[in-house]
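ugh ok fine here u go
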Amino acid sequence: MNSVSTCADAYQPIESERLLGIQDVANYLGITPITASRVMKRSGHAIELCRHVYIKESAFKAYLQELEGAPCQ
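structure:
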């Protein structure tokens, strides 16, 4: 059997982690998108790509834990 490998088949992600956008963070916290963007940038873990801001889900949760003062679980 001769299999053909495509670029999509060869792609192996480094991490399988969600990137949260501004609207995701705004919905999660119940705040406006402008405030969510500020929170993401203030965390120090924001990723800016093509004028869009993202944050890894684990970094976002760790930042919230840090703000709370509670230990991470």
